[in-house]
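Shapes recur. One chain:

:::
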Amino acid sequence: MSKNNLNLNIGAIEEIYSGYDLPSQDFPIDSVNIFMFSAVTWNRHRIHYDHEQAVREGHKGIVAQRGLLGNFLCQYLNSIFSGAFIEQVDWKVLKSAGPGDTLTCCGKTLEVVPGEDSDAAIIDLELVNQSGELVTSGQARVRAIKETDRIKPIRKPF
């Protein structure tokens, strides 16, 4: 997978092919975004905001949530593909990350699957820390947005 930080938006899914190396994107982590992610997800586990508690539980310090790392993967996919619908994202955390780490997300198209309305792309994803260690590996399925995917307001007559 490439690490090139070029213009991320490569356009429509139909423009890519199997084996395509996607551009990379960096996600710096600090204690504020970890704390705020805990707040918005109601995650009260102290290893995400209390350094001493995280160390007592065997970590080097405050730890980023699995969900935050998955969120980085989704942000990456949204920044790469214009008009994409993320059908599925699966990921596994292999190493902890915390404040001061910068995670680089990169991806590679494993397969382009023809569909009735639009093609879907199966993307292999990685988050790698500044030391080159694999933090998260995953896979996603993305396709073009269909009209039925859009949320429409319900208009009730008065």
About this structure: The beta strands are 25-28, 84-93, 102-113, 120-128, 134-144. Confidence is low (pLDDT under 50) at residues 1-8. The helical segments are 31-41, 51-56, 66-80.
